[in-house]
Structures are given as structure tokens and as C-alpha cells.
Amino acid sequence: MTNLKKIYYGWYIALSGTITSFISLAVLQIGHGAFINDIYEELSWSMTAISTGFSIRVFGAGILSPLGGYLIDKFGPRITCITGTTLTFIGLILFSIMTQLWVFYLSSIIIAVGMSIGSHNAITASIMHWFDKKRGFAYSFSATGRALGYIGIVPITILLSNYGWRDTSLYASYFFFIVSLPASFVIKPNPDLENKLQINTKDEKRISDNEYGITDALKTPAFWFLAFAQLIYSFGNQMNLVHQQPALKSIGYSLSAVALIVTIFGGIQVFGRLGSGWIGDRIGRSFLLMISFLLMGVGWIGLLFATPEVIFFITLYLLFYTAGQSAHTATDQTVVADFFGITRFATIKGSMQLIALVGGITGPIMAGRIYDIYGSYDIAFIILCPVVSLGTLCVFMARKLSPKNY
């Protein structure tokens, strides 16, 4: 008991983030991604229509991110996390029982509202408040949950084979709620920070030399370059999340092989994210973020040429894309806090996500449309390779034009 009391409370919040990010990715993205082919066959909707439903989540979460960030900064991360978790659960139940397209889209809207104020954004803001020097490692520790979420494909695949996508989705929805809600209660404000920062909420300009309000942040070129880098990342990442499993199946991989690839994909990232957080704290988080886009670009080349007969290219995809995504995940949020401070972190980051939603929406829909027309994802992957790599230039410019010295 004495040893437990000595543990810095921020680590409990980081652990809560690990748990909630695991369950969110396993259910909302990996799990639902596994259902796409079954939904396609049962309900006879086009791949474009299905992709649009998932893009609505990205659009809604993005468009509401500034408001969500404001609510987190205003009312604190705990109450917003509890509210967001409950709304997401309602949307998941609707998804499980849908028979018409409009119900799918309605469930996506509700999930989007929940996501905009739910566990990820709320816990991330809390971590930024509780950590400074070890911020990169603390956030990457929390983000390992999202990597572990890929391993959720194993039970999802087993349940899917035995019970079908509807029952599997329903079971996963209840599991999400039972795990995420208690984890939300772990979050609490940092009392030391509360005492230090006496914020005048009427003044949204520069709060101090190291802390930016949203008004001043918007005036800096670094804000816009980081936002555009996030747009590029969302373009590729959302395409990967929605279409990774259908793309692997279209190449010729069996259901069990796809499950194995996705599991390896997540397993590598568990160590990659922890390592990236540690490395970023030492060599510079913004520098590591810059490199991450190049690594992901190489990874897309691997997926473009991947076939079940040749192991080299799928290995290239697994190693380089996971390395890039791990580095990005470990640094993206922390770089915003490094550049603009933590006082209005959630609002500033939420405003960037509003811009990034353009990429998050167009990526999955574009890939779905390409598949509907050509019966292949190759053209989508060809587009992705150079586009994702442009993120390196954006972060480089943000570093050059940063309000601080990077």
C-alpha cells in the first residue's frame, strides 16, 4: 500500500488511457472494420455508402472537436469523458441493430459526438496537464492501448465466425461500456497545475510567454502547418483503419491470415509506441514527428505490392508503417502542447482536428469509390505514398516557424 501511494497519480491516468484506447480501437475501428464485408453482403450497400458511414464519424468528431476541446477545458476531462462514453455506447447499440442506411448514418453521428468529448481527447488533455518532461513517454504509454486494440481482431474474428456480425457487435458494445465507464472516473485535475494557472477565461489571447490561447495560436504559421500535417495523416490513417482488412482480403489473404497480419500490426506498435515516446523525449518530439511521415510513406509502398505469395512486401508494410504510425502517435499530441502550452491544449488541438477532418473524410470515401470502380485498392495506395510523405515538409516548416525554438 505504501508503494502504491508513492506512484505519481498521473500514471494512473495514463493507465486509464491505455485501457480506454484499447477498447475504443478494438471495438470502434478494428471490430467494425471486420464487419464491412458482412455488411456489404447482407445489406447490399455499396462500398462507397459503407465508407461514407465511417467517414461521418470522422467528420462529426472533427467538426465538433473545437467545441469538445472547449468543453474539456471548461468543465474538466472527467465529466466530458463520462458523457462521451455514454453517447458512444448508444451509437454502438444502434449500429448493431441497423437495417437501413439512415440508421447507420445516425449511429455514426451519435458515435462522433461521443468521440469528440470522450475518452481519447479527455484523457490526452489530462495527461498533458499531469506531465512535462516525461510527457512523450506518458502519452505513448497511454497510446499503447490503441496498438493493443489491433489484437482485438482475434476474439472479434472468433465471435464473428460463430455468431455473425450483429451479435458480435452487440457483445463488443457492452464490453466497451463496462470497461470504459469505470476508467473515466480515474481522471481528475492536477491540483498543482490548478494552483499555478489562474486563467482569465475572458481573455483568449496569450496567457503567458509559454502558454497560448486559441486566438494567438491561430495567428502563428506553426499552427496551420501542424494542422495540415494532421490532415495528411488523417487521410492515410482513416483509409487504413476502414479499408485495411477489406484490402488484405481483396489481395488474396484468407480471413485467418488477415487476423494474423492485423495482430502483428498491433503487436509491433505496442513496443514501437513506448520506444517512440522514450526516443522523442530525448531527440526532440517534433523531429521524430517529422520522420514519422516518411516511414509511413514507405509502408504504403509495401502494401501496394503485397501478395500472399511474397512475404517481403507485407513485411515492409508492417515494419515501416507501424514504425511511422508509432512515432506519429507518440508525438502528435505532445508537439502541440510543446508548441502552444497546456492551458488551452484541448481547444487548440480540437481546432486542428477540425481542419484534419477533411483528410479523414476523403481518405476512406476515396478508397471505397476506387474499389467500387476498379475492384482494387491499388490506385488508392499509389496516391497515398507521396501524399503521406508531404507531412514531413509540413512539420519541418512548423519547426522553422514555431513560436518557440525548435
Task: Describe the structure in brief.
By secondary structure, the chain is mainly α. It has helices at residues 2-6, 9-43, 47-63, 65-75, 77-97, 101-117, 119-130, 135-149, 153-184, 191-196, 214-218, 221-251, 255-283, 285-305, 311-340, 345-374, 378-400.
As a whole number of angstroms, the C-alpha radius of gyration is 20 Å
Task: Give the CA-CA distance, first to last residue.
Answer: 42 Å
Number of domains: 1
Q: What would CATH call the architecture? A: Up-down Bundle
Strand content: under 5%
Name of the level-1 CATH class: Mainly Alpha
Structural class: mainly alpha
Encode the helix/strand succession as letters: HHHHHHHHHHHHHHHHH
What is the count of β-strands?
0
Count of helical stretches:
17
Unreliable stretches: 197-208
